[in-house]
Structure prediction request, 343 residues.
Amino acid sequence: MNAPLWLKFQIHQFLWAFGYRTFRFPGAIYVYLTFRCNLQCSYCDNGSGRKFPDLSAVELSPAEWEKILQGMIRYSDVLLLSGGEPLVYPHTLEVIRIARRIGFKFISLNTNGLLLGDEITEAVDALIVSLDSLDREKSDKMWNRQGATDHVIKTIERLSRRRNPSLMVNSVILPDNIEDVEAVLNFCGRNGIAFSAGPALEKTYAVKGLRRNAKYRDLMEKILAAKMAGQRIAATVDYLKAVAKFRPFKCHPLLVWRIKPDGELVFPCSRKNSGAGNLIQNADPVQLFQMASGGNFFEVNCGENCPLSCYMDTSYMIQRPLGLLREGLYRLRTFSHGHRLIY
Ligand code: SF4
Ligand code: SF4
Prediction:
């Protein structure tokens, strides 16, 4: 069922309070258009220790995405496009136009920004652009592409002068770029850009060197302090406090439904995907989830505690209603319309 996001969260919160969970009522549909990428980041990891660009996956045509998205609009009208690098997929603009025609009201794009042109910029509601350091030489080495960082910084500066789409910068934290992420945080503060950051992962765990790292904790405290001071930070206070110490949490991985480039419905999560089935062959996601979970959705809590905001923070939003209320009020005050929805 498609319903307003606030109502879906309340349903999940209500069920959680009584010990139930459901894969129904997703907050968003997350589509990996491709696993290919024009960067080779040192920290890239799909959850099983492999880099996204090394995965070979069949890519669907716009007509096939149309079929899938027509089935998805009944469950959510929020579409998050990602990859790999989604702009390496040659039909991204066409898929966005199809999604609009079908009725998706909010469309965001996660991108490294290298191939971003005006048509895509104008077609989406929000852009999430990666930037891990302002130090061009160091960042180019991390991304394995000379000149990429300067191009991305200029793109971000240009986008920050536009009112639409909403813009957010996302940083990946590694043991050797902690000060750089702080510089990106400050850069975003100066330019009025929303910011998010999270630890780099190796499979389902934070990379070595972040746990018990005083500089890492200090950075997370600075991000929290920036949020409390009114800077636009896209993570709840609960998440920022927990991820600073890598606290365990109870994962609710299906608040966002994810679809791989070949149309496979991800189950239970992108890190531990065993695949619920392909939506090209069976367009009914609920049936696929029921079969994949053997009717017992309670079993999917794997206990690995991977500290990704898209899983950990959304789980907190269900389990801590007061934290979600506080975040909602904070976003009404500080975020533009588009960013109120981004996760
Ligand atoms: S931009 Fe993303 S998908 Fe591409 S190499 Fe870097 S981490 Fe991997
Ligand atoms: S903690 Fe959640 S996101 Fe991480 S592997 Fe387990 S189910 Fe997946």
Notes: The pocket of iron/sulfur cluster (ligand 1) is lined by residues 37, 39-41, 44, 51-53, 83-85, 112, 130 (CB under 6 Å).
